[in-house]
Amino acid sequence: MSEAVAYGLIVGATVGLAAGYLGSIMVLEKMALVGDALSHVALPGLALGVLYNFNPLVGGFLFLFVSAVLIWHLGRVTKLSFETLVGAAFTLALAVGILLFGDRLDALETALFGDIAQVGLISAVAAVLVSAVVILLTKMISKRIVLGLISEELAVSKGINVGRINLLYLLLVSLTVAIGIQITGTLLVGFLVVTPAAAARIVSSSLSRYFTLSAIFGAMSAISGILLSSYFNILPGPLVVVSGVAIFVIVIVIRWRLRARGLT
Amino acid sequence: MDTQDDFILRVSKLSIQVSNQRILDNLSFQIKKGATLAIVGPNGAGKTTLFRALLNLIPYSGTIEWNGKVNIGYVPQILSVRDIPISVKEFLSFKNESESDINSVLASVGLDSEAVVGKSLGVLSGGQLRRVLIAWALVDKPNVLLFDEATSGVDLDSEEAIYGMLKRLTEREKITLLLISHDLHIVREYSDCVLALNRCMVFFGESKEVMNPENQKLIYGEPICKEYGEAYV
After folding, report:
1. Order of all β-strands in the sheet with B61-66
2. Which of A41, A154, A207, A258 is the most exposed place for a label (fewest CB within 10 A)?
3. Interface of B with A in 74-93 (CB under 8 A)
4. pTM above 0.95, yes or no
5. Is the pLDDT of residue B216 over 90?
């Protein structure tokens, strides 16, 4: 196993855990497609990083977070749905990103599809640290977000500032997506916040099980996708997606078989 | 004998406006400690808005005065639990993580803790879900309970059973109960006083006095927004 694949596995496993956990909340919020679309907003930031010689992931994160905050604020002011605003923002971001990359087609390809060969020790350490912080903070706010989903009035009457919690959540999504871009690229990173959670939802009757399974499925998708990509020597992003969908299908089949036997 | 000090809630000239629309207008009433107040009125009459104001969730003009230290429990009208995989135990532990407290509060609302504690909220019957929500509101040992559309989605037998349980519970624990209901039978049977709303006060008084056929016709009639004086029971 090459050094890059080993580092890729560390990044994939930790980002998969964090993205799966965060994504479980996004699926509950019925914002799965929003999470996917939001990830594309990183593209102009990545382009600026390439153009001005700073770490493109930092640019990607800043663009994601600023856009998320703007969209969150616009949603409150205009009463337009989050979905509508993200839908408009992500196509604009894709267009601006492609224009900024200009003729740097290799860099554009890396941004869109990821490149495991560029993952080094610093990226791996950053991914571990960021994912640990994301998981800890998500654990702190997840119950409050869920209570807000069950009843905003219950949450507010318990002194929970739903708006502020949602903003922190967007920050965590931006961080995770920015780190995950290295493995899957901006086009496919949204997968990590959607499909593992969807698979976990099928077999969960409690929050603790749902959150845990979603994180595990996220990590499993990333690890198996990276190992397959190393074996077949092709881009990891699509194989992470295929692995995750395979987990999703296996979960559906297991659930179906258990139901047929009257075990659930 | 009634005194000015035995009230727990005094509302004076309460008006609420949402997006340039007046939802409640010049509402004044007062209720005694330990009493059960039923709030009735058509959809859009401002009943839930009144609760939101009492919980201090929305801005209002006028005064809402609670007598002494109040701890308010709230059972909301709308809940989105069907799509969320959350167990009864997890839901109640949002407020109190002690297993014995959870078991005893479930028992107090007539639920077998062992049978329901591990179940997902989404698979409970309407009646069971309502009882879990009451348990949620009771975990903090409130002395005031706000109960919104308490039995929507619940069959008639369960509805009677829930109100019977609630009546015993509030009497035993000396909890002041404010409930919103569309069921006039429930209102007559289980409340001490009634506040009929239709954006302003339609009538207010002791249930046995005000729940007469003429007044009942007024409850779901056109809004009558004339000035009312202060009304106390």
Report:
1. B61-66, B7-18, B21-32, B231-232
2. A258
3. 74, 76, 78-81, 83-87, 90-91
4. no
5. no
Q: Please classify residue A212 by burial: count the beta carbons closer than 10 Å to its beta carbon, then call 0-12 exposed, 13-18 middle and 19+ buried.
A: middle
Question: What is the model's pLDDT at position B217?
Answer: 77
pLDDT reading at A76 higher than 90: no
Cross-sheet strand order for the sheet of B144-147: B72-75, B144-147, B176-180, B36-40, B193-197, B201-206
Domain that holds residue A180: 3-260
All residues of chain A having their beta carbon less than 8 Å from the beta carbon of residue B94 are 143, 147, 158
Go through the domains of chain B in sequence order and give each one's CATH number: 1-70+145-150+190-233 (3.40.50)
> β-strands B61-66, B176-180: how paired?
unpaired
- Give the count of Cβ contacts less than 8 A between chain A and B: 58
What percent of chain B lies above the pLDDT cut of 90? Answer: 32
Q: How confident is the model at residue B229 (pLDDT cuts 50, 70, 90)?
A: very low
Q: Check if B32 contacts A (Cβ < 8 Å).
A: no
CA distance A97 to A50: 11
- Using the Cα atoms of residue B183, residue B38, residue A158 and residue B43 in order, give the sign of their dihedral: positive
CATH number of the domain at A201, please. Answer: 1.10.3470.10
Q: Which two tokens stand for residue A19?
A: 């993205």
List phi, psi (to 5°) of B153: 80, 20
- Count of structural domains within chain A: 1
> Taking Cα atoms as reference points, which of A45, A97, A93 lies closest to residue A71?
A93
